Amino acid sequence: METVNQLLLDFIKAMNIWEVDAAKILKFPFSTEEEYTKAQEKARKELRIVFSTYCTEKEMKKKYGRIQSLSYGRKLPEYSLETQTITKTEKINKNKYVVYTKYSDTTSFDFRYTIIYKKASWKLDKKERFSVYKNDWVMENL
User: Fold this and answer.
1) How far apart (Å, rounded) are the C-alpha atoms in residues 77 and 135?
2) What confidence score (pLDDT) does residue 133 get?
3) Residues of the chain with confidence (pLDDT) below 50
4) Fewest Cβ atoms closer than 10 Å to its Cβ: which of 4, 50, 110, 131?
5) How far is CA 120 from CA 76, 115, 117, 123, 139, in A?
6) What number of CA atoms fall less than 13 Å from residue 2's CA on the CB side?
7) Residue 135 belongs to what domain range?
8) Whether 84 contacts 76, CB under 8 Å
9) pLDDT of residue 61
10) ω before 29 within 30° of 0 (cis)?
11) How far apart are CA 67 and CA 50, in angstroms?
């Protein structure tokens, strides 16, 4: 259990670093379209390193995932150890855990991350947010 919690904490830390860097790399204005494209490529390359370390291949190949969209917290990082804390860890089976977190900053959200053991390592497989409107968990991009 400690291994999966640490994996999530390490991912949150790595994503925080990436978001802060991406905000600098992708800061407008750009003098040319080519300059902007190069900045996107650099940010995407750095994000692929984070995702290949912590996430399943499925998450890396998502057509509309974070790698494609390059979304990051514009004013404040979406991922931060200061704003997101682990509240519960649930063992589903020997190869699958669900880790619940509480995000508290200007707003408050409950998230759950599914972590699976695949190809001899633990990887993040999906992220969900609890929707108070739907009273259910909805998919989020990692």
Assistant:
1) 26
2) 96
3) none
4) 131
5) 35, 13, 7, 10, 26
6) 0
7) 2-140
8) no
9) 85
10) yes
11) 10
Using N-to-C axis directions, what is the helix angle for 33-54 and 2-25, rounded to 10°?
A: 170
The Cα 35–Cα 138 span in angstroms is 36
Looking at residue 117, what is its pLDDT? Answer: 97
The CA dihedral of 82, 84, 90, 92, to the nearest 10 degrees, is -120
Residue 97 structure tokens: 């855990």
Starting at the edge strand found earlier in the chain, the sheet holding 84-93 runs 84-93, 96-104, 108-118, 121-131, 136-140
Residue 130's pLDDT is: 97
Q: Provide the terminal-to-terminal Cα distance of the chain, rounded to the nearest Å.
A: 20
Q: Is the pTM of this model over 0.90?
A: yes
Identity of the residue numbered 132? V
What does the chain come to in residues? 142
Which residues does 117 contact at the CB level (< 8 Å), separation at least 6? Answer: 94, 95, 96, 123
What CATH code is carried by the domain that includes residue 52? Answer: 3.10.450.710
Q: Which residue has the tokens 């514009």?
A: 74
pLDDT reported for residue 64: 86
Number of domains in the chain: 1
Measure the CA–CA gap between 31 and 102, rounded to whole angstroms.
Answer: 40
